[in-house]
Amino acid sequence: MQSIPPLDLTEQYAAIAAELNAAVLEVLQSGRYINGPVVDAFAEDFAQYIGTPECVVCNSGTDALYLALRVLDIGPGDEVITSPFTFIATAETISAVGATPVFVDIEPDSFNLDPELIEAVISPRSRAIMPVHLFGRPADMSRINAIATAHRLYVIEDCAQATGAQWQGQKVGSLGHVGCFSFFPSKNLGACGDGGALTTADPAIAATARMLREHGSRERYYHEAIGINSRLDALQAAILRIKLQHLDRWNARRAAIADEYQRLLAPIDQVIPPTAPQAGQSVWNQYTIRLSAAASDDDLRQRVRQQLQQHGVNTMIYYPLPLHQQQVYAALGYGPGSFPVAEQTARQVLSLPMFPELLPEQQARVVYSLKDALLQR
Ligand SMILES: *Cc1c(COP(=O)(O)O)cnc(C)c1O
């Protein structure tokens, strides 16, 4: 019996190998590996796909977040409001520019930061809100934008897990001042290596981001700011250009798989499946359930995970420890219980295999094995 991985990238490559190989070969033969027409073409395609006038491509999602913060001149003494239940890069980049992440708890059903809690932490030092569209599900951008406007804050969307997701008919990354994307291989639009992009409607933001990404230079060898080197390789751009053409189809497959999981999991008592957003569309980068149990959630989850593994079903835990409880953020002084929803969520979540090529029989086996594991405890 072949085991089912949480994510399989080989099937996707096999399905479009001829297209990808030809595009890669063309770049190899062109001799233009940094910047150039393929990189520009992908940036244009991506801007059009997201629905923003501007797109600045860069080397990773982390760099996109860092550049967004730098462009908006956020630094020492400033505060940025974000979620404690996300990948470290979200808060890490806030710290990297010298600002302070200020966390608010999440909503239990969406896993995203709870807009109701934002106003209570706004201070004279607040500069921006950084919502994360976690697991592909859009955050409530209507309420977040309303609060940001009322308090004159920037909105930087962390779209790393949500390429193609929509809120009220608009793609994420076009709703705040800046959208930040990752093309890490496991994201919905994944390169064969690192990659990232920043989207915005503001040409001045885009121009400054381009300057910072090229060593603080607009004209080669003339430098006006301390920047970084963060380019998207031509090889990755060529690959992403092709994959972008398939993205909507892949995201539709993910949505169909999520519907099927929902149907299969509904009868299982101890499982709380994720919900779909009311005013938007998730792109299901992860399908993350909660295992509910009164007492030690974590022990139950470990046992279930091990038994699933014996059935050849591999799962992931995104994320086992919220950011405010990470060692690196001990100095921020958030004690246990600071964000009870995030803390409980971290003990209960389990991400099931989710990728567009997941077969119906594999999916049935995931659910069957999960039922079995829960019965046996
Ligand atoms: C992946 C990810 C990032 C960082 O992207 P990289 O391309 O890996 O640097 C940032 N935020 C979130 C929520 C992510 O999932």
TrEMBL record:
The keyword Transferase applies. Keywords: Aminotransferase, Pyridoxal phosphate, Transferase. The keyword Metal-binding does not apply. InterPro entries: DegT/StrS_aminotransferase, PyrdxlP-dep_Trfase, PyrdxlP-dep_Trfase_major, PyrdxlP-dep_Trfase_small. The active site is at K187. Belongs to the DegT/DnrJ/EryC1 family. This is DegT DnrJ EryC1 StrS family aminotransferase. It comes from Halomicronema hongdechloris C2206.
